[in-house]
């Protein structure tokens, strides 16, 4: 999951994720993810994850709705598990890397480093950000296992939902492994800073605001899997333009995995629209009002308090993942689930339907206005991942 990267452009007011009052809670969040600027003794402190920016609503799924997911066990077995690939025939990271037992290993590494020598730093910022997002996989499995009615209750449960979550995690695990090893071999990046960022990110978790609710959770994963498909696909296109065809193949292969996983999660939501259209529509509108935060939005390297925002700005400028992509994904899901044609909704459900079906054009208009207000002065930012070399935001 890429599920690259919030991959939200800095100047897009619609896609920002401000601290605000949760409409279902009397409390107001007063915490911030911004860390103290006092760095005197911070390195001596035990790791403390950043404070959450939202009041956490938990277990919002009514008990009777859990029965829906129990009733879908056979459906999940036939429709989700069928999308998994057998381990013995699936690709593995080593298929794309120099073979360490080979006599030609050092020559292969030399060729790899030669291919990446002229690739620009801003591309490496995007690729590293995508890799770090993939490496935070433990957080994503944890998030799925918070969802009521579908979690893996024992760690080795044989329910279809639990089998899917573990097998999906196992397939996703290869993505970070492959990108990590490839980047290590290039010699172009500061692996220790990258490794620190991964540790911080896994320790910090994520705040998708899915409330232990599988309606919200599967809408989130449907959106995110498509976002990572787009991001990895675009890094593949860039690598091809820079002449590294092996890296293009790697990114494209990962993108294909994300596309297949997107198919699984969108199937789940499609089924929910079939069996419970009103509450599924309300859930979709709820997630879009909250705005989809990207899984690595708490990214930190020990130095840059706005690391994710800066990374996202580079990705936006290079076209790896943009505000347009955000609107396109929303529009795609509305069409994929045929939301405009759903009938028989309650009054609240119809209002939610109107909201989600008209949202993408509004996002685009707001982004166009934000783009028109951008200053032309190029801002340069150092990234610890590339030895503090500066790239344009």
Automatic annotation (TrEMBL):
Fe cation 2 binds at residues 172, 225, 258, 261. The keyword Lipid biosynthesis applies. Pathway: Lipid metabolism; fatty acid metabolism. It comes from Asparagus officinalis (Garden asparagus). Gene3D superfamilies: Ribonucleotide Reductase, subunit A. GO terms for cellular component: chloroplast stroma. It is found in: Plastid, Chloroplast stroma. This is Acyl-[acyl-carrier-protein] desaturase. Binds 2 Fe(2+) ions per subunit. It is an enzyme of class 1 (oxidoreductase). Introduction of a cis double bond between carbons of the acyl chain. Belongs to the fatty acid desaturase type 2 family. Its EC number is 1.14.19.-.
